[in-house]
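During the second year of the project, the team shifted from modelling isolated chains to modelling whole assemblies. The rationale, set out in the original proposal, was that interfaces cannot be judged from single-chain predictions alone. As a representative example for this report, we include one of the complexes processed in the last quarter. Its constituent sequences, exactly as entered into the pipeline, are reproduced here:
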Amino acid sequence: MARIDLDLAHAYRPNPQQDSDYALLPLKMSFDDGGAYALLGPSGCGKTTMLNIMSGLLVPSQGSVKFDGKDVTNASPQARNIAQVFQFPVIYDTMTVAENLAFPLRNRKVPQAQIKARVGIIAEMLEMSGQLNQRAANLSADAKQKISLGRGLVRPDVAAVLFDEPLTVIDPHLKWQLRRKLKQIHHELKLTLIYVTHDQVEALTFADQVVVMTRGRAVQVGSAEALFERPAHTFVGNFIGSPGMNFLVAQASQGQIEIAGQVMLLAHGQDLPDGELKLGIRPEYIRLRTQPSAGSLGAQVTQVQDIGTYVLVSAQLAGQKLKARLSPEQARPQVGDEVWLEVLSRHTCFYKSEELVA
Amino acid sequence: MQLELANISKKVGATHWLYELNLQPVPGAVTVLLGATQAGKTSLMRIMAGLDTPTHGRVSVDGADVTGMPVRERNVAMVYQQFINYPSLKVADNIASPLKLRGQANIDQRVKELAAKLHIEAFLERYPAELSGGQQQRVALARALAKAAPLMLLDEPLVNLDYKLREELREELTQLFASGDSTVIYATTEPSEALLLGGYTAVMDAGQLLQYGPTAQVFHEPCSLRVARAFSDPPMNLLAAKSRGNSIQLQSGQTLPLGVPQQTSADLTVGVRAISLRVNERPGDLPLAGQVELAEISGSDTFVHLSTAVGELVAQLSGVHFFELGSPLTLYLSAAQAYVFDNKGDLLLAPTRQGGDTQVVRRAAPKNDLAPSGGRPSTHGRGAH
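Output from the structure prediction step:
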């Protein structure tokens, strides 16, 4: 196991001039030994580039990669002693489940007794003990992917295990179980795990620290709670949560805030820079009022959807749109209703130039 | 247009791909085909499109039999999981292709309108390969809309896109479908996608059509355990129970004050959706104590897995919450929010819907009444329970 330090940037073309020339903008980041990390972002954000640089499949165009302080920038994946799990199962069809799991250990000449013990532990964790002597060829796609996960986890001495969207091929109903397995396994094995995904559930559930990336930049590194409660960037506010955070264009001046011609008083002691801001409030934290109240805005309901577990209300005020999530037990408004939406509370965030300021 | 599938089945070799089913998708609306992979969604769509003929049964459009008619003679637009465009044609020509085939006037104008609707105006002069996955799928969708076909079939069109993009495109699609110009059939494996699309939902499982009706109604009143399972994510919590006259007893000995009709079996299954389990107690609640196995976080919600005396439970809590693995936790359930199924898996009781119907307790109606059009397949019971 190892601590990984990155101080680098990467461009796939020579002589990068501007931000858009970089797949990965200059960054400095550390991954602690034994931690569970996720790299989360949409396709093209640079997360796979970062993973490939850590695994040694890609040499960064500038800067260095260190494992436990040792420079491994130009070292191959084998020399770095890392394990990798990919989107699609990579297993040997002609071997049994046990032989597949044992393969990385056998390759490294681990004594037979140790192999047997370790394969037993991993198979138990993945609930595959009953299938150890079965040929891998006839297993379902998700059973095969479980073997791939097992092979990634089987070596106790790896510097890190890197996962590249490992649950893509898994049926949604089974993803639940595998996410849970991975989390339990991390608690039991204490390996350094780095997990690339575009799926927020996988990232937030699996990782202690989530690195949110967009356009080659890591915009926030934090716990699930930090990303949800205090997104450091509007991108994070939108990307985390479904639907994401609402943003309203606002003007702040002297303890007041104006949105679409409606003026609200800020809470006592709240300090905002004057000028144009964005007010951010999550759909979960908007309160629906039938009467004007402090910190609320008048708006018109444009859509009411029964999403089964909750009710999603869309509303607009002078062209700005926002969504509120109501519990199914709450009274629901009708389309066209004039309502008051409470947007100022301890959950409200303010952004200037897309960065969190208050 | 009124599409009608009557007594359709599909058998390949000895394997039933589709068991006999009837379905009349509501014209001008979205019908979601919801089911896991291998449920038969794609097989059914291929029959609707005319890409395959059913082994038995009849497909008709506005009353006319089209069962053997090949796809090129039907007026159907299709969008697939993969982003399928003409690679050698620019985006504008891709969108224009169905218009040219029809010899329509004002093609440029129409292409621009469609491109604007799908936010790809800026890419009209590019080739598909120069676009991101999301943009490529927008081109495929624009081409399908350009066809202005009365029947539009979409087979998991968003599955290969990032989830935020999926969210955005799904919302736009819902608005486009709302025009009511086409009858839309939309296949998905995700319950939440069906709920966000609204419209009507046909739940499928293992080659069978289980239930068809307005999406929210099917969700709130699943006619069987199999439907409830297929239409719940996270899975519905299922607790083995016995009928005790005016109450239902769980394996832990705890009882729910719910009565079920006398002629039903003594063995029951109580179904509880994850959202109905709470960490805050209310008067009259049934407490379910256990240990936390895992808390999964989606951002908007936390899904807590608990192991208890009545089995493993999942609760859905709004927002981000942390729970130590293995820590004790008690979840609370109101009997009013429980579903009850009999030993065949048929629904006996469903919770009252807020803002929905006013019936306190809804008994399972005869099977076909629960499925407004379509109904249940003749061979059922396989795997129910």
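Residues 163-177 of chain B form the longest helix (15 residues). Chain B touches chain A through 42 residues (CB under 8 Å).
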